[in-house]
């Protein structure tokens, strides 16, 4: 098509649109931010983010506590464990959990417990030697998975939390087995209120930094509530692909 033909063609289109023909020099480039999400939560206080996180996670079937002291935590957690008649717990080997003195509380309640990759109190193991099992895991690794599977409650610490989607993020690594957050019927995850950020774009930035440092975790698990699945008839089933219950405990101190 020559220039005259193209101009005539474009003139006809402009006439159909009932407007004058626009020339290339008259079209202003679009003005938009390449990262508009950066300003989504400007002006929001940390309390705003905490409230949004709690509201969103609860709307997705999660249970959220806000706890203001060690004493309150001990009282509420003790009552909750007793009410659920918990007999066995698996938890991460994490110094942040140790600061909460969960071991003494569990022992007071006569609850058997095991810390991932470090035994504390519980049933005797079979003493298998290191070797390969049929599923490719070492006997040692299989032992810890079995312990997590037998536990009624798995206890972890969040590596991040995001208000917009009510998402808790946990990284797997030494002492922090993924099975603890996946296999027990209930997942109990602790986090400080200061860990709650606006949206998942904050997580992607952090993961990029970890990648550049060569420090990416073995897995990154995004948890937005208890496991919930639906079949072709829209029947909701809890606990098929993970815990039936999620309790996030937001600690109001650091």
Description:
The chain is α/β, with parallel strands linked by helices. It has one domain: 3-Layer(aba) Sandwich (Rossmann fold), CATH 3.40.50. The protein is built from 8 helices and 13 strands. It has a 7-stranded mixed sheet, with helices on both faces. A hairpin with a 5-residue loop joins strand 11 and strand 12. 27% of the residues are buried.
Structure summary, number of beta strands: 13
Low-confidence stretches: 120-136
Structurally, how many domains make up the residues? 1
Largest sheet: 7 strands, mixed
Global structural class? alpha/beta
- CATH class value: Alpha Beta
**What is the annotated CATH architecture?**
3-Layer(aba) Sandwich
Helix proportion range: 25-40%
> Whole-number radius of gyration?
26 Å
CATH superfamily: NagB/RpiA/CoA transferase-like
Overall pLDDT, averaged? 87
Report, as a whole number of angstroms, the end-to-end distance: 70 Å
Output the strand order for the largest sheet: 1-13-8-5-2-3-4
Order of SSEs: HHEHEHHEEHEEEHEEHEEEE
CATH-derived topology: Rossmann fold
Beta fraction of the residues? 15-25%
Note the overall shape: elongated
The tally of helices reads 8
Q: Care to give the gist of this entry?
A:
The protein has 254 residues and is an alpha/beta fold. It has helices at 3-16, 46-59, 70-83, 95-98, 102-108, 139-150, 179-182, 200-213; strands at residues 63-67, 88-91, 112-115, 118-121, 153-157, 160-162, 167-172, 186-192, 196-197, 219-223, 228-230, 236-238, 245-251.
């Amino acid at each position: 098509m020559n220039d005259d033909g193209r101009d005539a063609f474009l003139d006809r289109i402009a006439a159909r649109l009932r407007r004058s023909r626009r020339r290339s020099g008259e079209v202003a480039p679009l003005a938009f931010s390449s990262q508009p999400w950066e300003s989504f939560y400007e002006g929001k206080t940390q309390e705003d983010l905490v409230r949004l996180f709690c509201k969103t996670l609860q709307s997705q079937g999660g249970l959220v506590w806000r706890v203001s002291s060690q004493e309150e935590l001990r009282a509420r957690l003790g009552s909750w464990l007793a009410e659920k008649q918990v007999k066995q717990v698996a938890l991460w080997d994490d110094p942040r959990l140790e600061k909460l003195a969960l071991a003494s509380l569990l022992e007071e309640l006569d609850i058997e417990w095991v810390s991932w990759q470090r035994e504390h109190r519980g049933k005797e193991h079979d003493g298998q030697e290191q070797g390969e099992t049929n599923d490719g895991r070492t006997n040692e690794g299989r032992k810890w998975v079995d312990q997590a599977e037998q536990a009624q409650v798995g206890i972890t610490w969040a590596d991040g939390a995001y208000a917009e989607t009510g998402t808790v993020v946990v990284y797997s690594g030494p002492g922090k087995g993924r099975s603890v957050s996946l296999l027990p019927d209930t997942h109990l995850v602790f986090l400080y209120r200061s860990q709650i950020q606006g949206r998942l774009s904050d997580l992607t930035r952090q993961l990029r930094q970890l990648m550049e440092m060569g420090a990416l975790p073995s897995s990154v698990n995004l948890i937005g509530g208890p496991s919930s699945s639906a079949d072709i008839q829209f029947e909701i089933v809890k606990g098929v692909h993970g815990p039936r219950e999620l309790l996030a405990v937001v600690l109001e101190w650091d």
